Amino acid sequence: MAEISDLRKVVGELKQKEAEEITKELLAQGLDPLMVLEDGIVQGLNDVGERFQAKKAIIPDLVKGGIVARTCIPYVEAALSKVEVQGVPKGKKILIGTMLSQHNIGKNLVSTFLSINGFDVVDMGSENQPWDFYEKAEEMGVDMIAVSVMFIPAREKVAELTDLLTQLGVREKYKVIVGGAITNEKWAESIGADGWGAQAKDGVELAKKLLGVA
Ligand code: B12
């Protein structure tokens, strides 16, 4: 019988077919889809990232890691929507995007989690600049801006975003939350974000808390 550690291993080894089969098997066993996601798929990708950092993996491995993850995640999402759906419209609009980077897998997960929990999500995709977030937030009249931050150059751009909102006199209109592989709570506080989340599900908790909805 497959275990979550097996999923982490095959994702880390970039074995697409095996990863897909084990994901299906673990979910069929009734394991918590959130654990399958975080302890299996995300940890496996972190292992790929660590190998890359240690120069034991190359960019095509990162590309393959993204493909393996995107093969497995739809099964998790299907299982999540069965157990997690709150379905209650919250009447709150949240803008989400990645700052600068092409890494969109985590952002897509946060977006899905928010949607299935009843938030109205405006997904502006990847490779955004600070002013893209500002313009879209004003255009769509959102309540919150969620930024996914996945590589180092993106970090200072998020600081630029909070400064820009302040300079334009709209900082109070929007709650700003951040997350992503290279972020932590201390950094989020230092750039004046309203909240930070380690995992996609934290985005939902932060949105509920900061926007004052049950
Ligand atoms: C797959 C991958 C890629 C793929 C991405 C494919 C895609 N469509 O997304 C591709 C090939 C594009 C890629 C490219 C690069 N990558 Co890359 N990549 C990764 C890898 C292995 C996995 C990322 C991933 O999808 N993880 C799975 C998802 C689910 O996790 P996540 O994004 O972290 O999201 C979770 C949480 O963080 C959270 N979350 C995310 N966003 C938000 C937002 C909010 C508001 C909240 C609450 C929560 C939240 O929720 C998610 C679920 O729990 C990471 C390693 C790692 N440790 O993450 C490196 C990594 C991110 N990449 C890295 C680098 C360096 C690069 C490149 C610069 C390499 C290069 N020299 O070209 C390029 C940059 C390209 C660009 N312009 O953006 C570094 C970044 C660190 C740094 N020093 O900047 C990492 C950490 C690898 C490493 N250890 O060196 N990469």
Task: Record keyword descriptors for this entry.
214 residues; Methyltransferase, Methionine Synthase (B12-binding Domains), Chain A, domain 1; Rossmann fold; five-stranded parallel beta sheet; 9 helices; 5 strands
Description of the molecule:
The protein has 214 residues and is an alpha/beta fold. It folds into two domains: 4-83, Methyltransferase, Methionine Synthase (B12-binding Domains), Chain A, domain 1, CATH 1.10.1240; 93-210, 3-Layer(aba) Sandwich (Rossmann fold). The protein has nine helices and five strands, in the order H-H-H-H-E-H-E-H-E-H-E-H-E-H. The protein has a five-stranded parallel beta sheet with strand order 2-1-3-4-5, sandwiched between helices. The chain is globular, with a radius of gyration of 17 Å. The structure holds cobalamin. Cobalamin binds at residues 38, 42, 45-46, 48-50, 52-53, 59, 62-63, 65-66, 69, 101-107, 109-110, 146, 148, 150-152, 177-182, 197, 199-200, 202-203.
Radius of gyration: 17 Å
Which structural class is indicated by helix and strand composition? alpha/beta
CATH topology of the largest domain: Rossmann fold
The H-level CATH homologous superfamily of the largest domain, spelled out, is: Cobalamin-binding domain
